[in-house]
Specification:
Blueprint: H1 11-14, H2 40-60
């Protein structure tokens, strides 16, 4: 089951960076820095927010 707003990709087959390890939990962020609607601050903020959310999820579902 995939929650709304989440996507799942075949990471290894696509050669995406999250496939570099065999970790049970993996994530990547999609922040479109070339979007006229995204500021540099939003792009910089999105990265650690995504990492913290992933860590929180892993800890809560350990």
């Amino acid at each position: 089951m995939v929650p709304p707003g989440d996507t799942q990709y075949p990471l290894k087959q696509l050669g995406l960076c999250a496939s570099i390890t065999n970790a049970p939990y993996k994530t990547t962020t999609e922040v479109y820095s070339d979007s006229p609607r995204a500021t540099p601050e939003q792009c910089n903020t999105a990265q650690p927010v995504a990492v913290c959310a992933a860590i929180d999820y892993a800890l809560e579902n350990w």
